[in-house]
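stuck on this one:
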Amino acid sequence: MLIAGGSAAGRGRGAPADKVSAPDLDYPAPMHGALRAMLQFAGATVDGETSAVYPPLLQSDVRY
């Protein structure tokens, strides 16, 4: 809801509405946090977010 002079979210009142109205996204959208970073970045630091190396990658240098 837009209120004159700004949005409701800007004053902390929009958060509950945002959560309720968030779409239910399909896989892989729900995957987040350390697991997502590990699978996506494989140990690199991207935009200040560090990630671990996926353990199977450490077991061997052989790829495909």
About this structure: DSSP finds three helices and two strands in the chain. Confidence is low (pLDDT under 50) at residues 5-9.
